[in-house]
């Protein structure tokens, strides 16, 4: 059984709730079919179990879900046909208890502790580096950028989500170039394999065979694609959320709590959680809700490492750690590559912000340029 909690905007919430329950389980929300026997309805019709104002709780029978039905099918049930019912003016899926149906999902393969072991980054926030410029680099140039970030001490490198498989920097050429450049270093490298389902799985498999140490996929590849990569490629998986507000805002949407439950269910090990103090500046309370879903104990699954990015710079590192703890990754592109002393110095400034030892010229320059919370960026 799956229990879903909604916030419904309708002039008649009770009618809307019944339309959702019936329409998302057995049939037309208003008209019963001749074959809608009492036995069939008892076995398959979803039930409205609570209504408080616009808050509605619906139970979907477990018998409606087959063993091979994945997150795509479940989401089609939970947030599907109700958007086509005109007297439902808004419907937000605010939380889900997946019940026994969660058992079909493996969850993160590595989780926070596994990523720490792979990088050797113990008892401190991890530092992530993002390749910039996003587009236009040759495989050799991209490899040089990655090596410079690794030399500066980043723990994790990912390509940007807009880098596909272009002829001037094909995946088959750039992955071996980066792997060679990072040989002997503990830095995890995640090429971007965003694509349609079959292409994304094929690219992830190729990246694995060529020596990549993680996989980066954007949300637009689809939730089921993440799960397929998790099951077929034994590498850490990074969830890039850019584009997620298409799902999490508006009259018909899911909450970020639901989104990150899905991300954890389908097996990602790291995920972009958002940012505080950058050009994306979310409230501490909103971020803490998401962090609870990612890092808290939940149905026996491994934890999910949250990555803060979108304007991160060295002046924010200590504040992020103090507010959100060590079990985070702080990822940057602009403030690493835009450092006046170069990419390696930019990466080194982030590490110096975590554990300053002796003189810190790279950090000093960064703080002068970007300052801390509230400073111009």
Automatic annotation (TrEMBL):
<feature type="domain" description="Ribulose bisphosphate carboxylase large subunit C-terminal">
    <location>
        <begin position="112"/>
        <end position="356"/>
    </location>
</feature>
<dbReference type="InterPro" id="IPR036376">
    <property type="entry name" value="RuBisCO_lsu_C_sf"/>
</dbReference>
<dbReference type="InterPro" id="IPR033966">
    <property type="entry name" value="RuBisCO"/>
</dbReference>
<dbReference type="InterPro" id="IPR020878">
    <property type="entry name" value="RuBisCo_large_chain_AS"/>
</dbReference>
<dbReference type="InterPro" id="IPR000685">
    <property type="entry name" value="RuBisCO_lsu_C"/>
</dbReference>
<dbReference type="InterPro" id="IPR036422">
    <property type="entry name" value="RuBisCO_lsu_N_sf"/>
</dbReference>
<dbReference type="Pfam" id="PF00016">
    <property type="entry name" value="RuBisCO_large"/>
</dbReference>
<protein>
    <submittedName>
        <fullName>Ribulose-bisphosphate carboxylase large subunit family protein</fullName>
    </submittedName>
</protein>
């Amino acid at each position: 059984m799956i229990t879903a909690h909604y916030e419904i905007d309708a002039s008649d919430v009770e009618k809307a709730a019944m339309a959702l329950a019936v329409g998302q389980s057995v049939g037309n929300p208003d008209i019963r079919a001749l074959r809608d026997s009492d036995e069939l309805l008892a076995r398959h019709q979803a039930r409205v179990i609570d209504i408080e104002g616009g808050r509605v709780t619906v139970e979907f029978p477990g018998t409606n879900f087959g063993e091979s039905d994945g997150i795509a099918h479940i989401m089609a049930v939970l947030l599907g046909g109700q958007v086509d019912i005109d007297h439902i003016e808004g419907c937000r899926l605010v939380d889900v208890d997946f019940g026994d149906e969660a058992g079909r999902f493996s969850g993160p393969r590595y989780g926070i502790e596994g990523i720490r072991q792979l990088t050797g980054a113990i008892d401190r926030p991890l530092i992530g580096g993002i390749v910039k410029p996003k587009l236009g680099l040759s495989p050799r140039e991209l490899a040089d950028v990655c090596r410079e970030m690794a030399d500066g001490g980043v723990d994790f490198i990912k390509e940007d989500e807009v880098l596909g498989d272009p002829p001037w920097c094909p995946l088959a050429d750039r992955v071996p170039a980066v792997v060679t450049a990072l040989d002997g270093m503990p830095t995890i490298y995640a090429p971007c394999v965003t694509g349609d389902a079959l292409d994304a799985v094929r690219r992830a498999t190729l990246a694995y065979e060529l020596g990549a140490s993680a996989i980066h996929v954007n949300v637009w590849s689809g939730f089921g694609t993440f799960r397929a990569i998790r099951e077929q490629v034994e590498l850490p998986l990074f969830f890039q959320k850019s584009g997620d507000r298409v799902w999490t805002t508006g009259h018909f949407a899911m909450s970020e709590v639901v989104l990150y439950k899905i991300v954890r269910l389908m097996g990602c090990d790291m995920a972009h959680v958002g940012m505080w103090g950058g050009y994306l500046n979310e409230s501490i309370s909103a971020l803490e809700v998401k962090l609870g879903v990612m890092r808290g104990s939940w149905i026996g699954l491994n934890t999910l490492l949250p990555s803060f990015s979108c304007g991160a710079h060295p002046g924010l590192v200590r504040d992020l750690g103090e507010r959100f703890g060590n079990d985070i990754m702080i990822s940057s592109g602009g403030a690493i590559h835009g450092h006046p002393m170069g990419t390696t110095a930019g990466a080194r400034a982030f590490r110096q912000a975590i554990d300053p030892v002796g003189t810190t010229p790279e950090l000093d320059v960064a703080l002068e340029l970007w300052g801390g919370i509230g400073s111009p960026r």
